[in-house]
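Appendix B, Record 12. Input sequence as logged:
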Amino acid sequence: MTDCPEEQQTQHYGRKWRGFGPVRNNERLIFAVFDRTPRDGNSLIKNSFNNSHLIAYEESVARQLYVTRSVFDSKIVSPSIPLRGPLVGISCADVTRLRRLRVDIPRGPNRFVNIRAICVLDKVVAGDFDGHATLGYAGVGALNVGKEQLGKVRSRIRLDLATKVFSEVQHPNNNRWRHPITVALARAHSVLRVLWGELSRWSRRSA
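Logged structural output:
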């Protein structure tokens, strides 16, 4: 109930033949930081992350392996400026560290349940870029805890995201942006990976 089964299957609107497949542990994610993003200097704070977006599995990030600078500017920065102000910089996080983040849920006097805190999905809706991903609370809301306690747990998770997982805000020029050819090759590799999986399943059924 508190794991992230959605991570095992692509959440791309075009399903398995589109995008780059589920987010893998060796990836790195980019969080865009704007002038109106709450922060403390170059450090993120818990309110840098939107609680409602995390509840809905819609806190947007970019997958570094599959995003060029031009896509980042056109698909993330430009549409956000009217609402969030100019881009200040980016903050990055390793997927492995995100998936290792855990939180204690009180279950009585001196009793806790320790669960995963965050899911990482390759969630792409029509109009998104294929290198888009989202973060969401990993089943915390499904646990039987009071509203006040639930709010405290979610607040703790956002604080951990800011202080334990994501880097300090840096200039976008410091990022290793992908070349369009590299992204195209990655897209081809994703198709081949899906095709190989389909062939393997067909072979097992035919055996």
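The chain has a mean pLDDT of 91.
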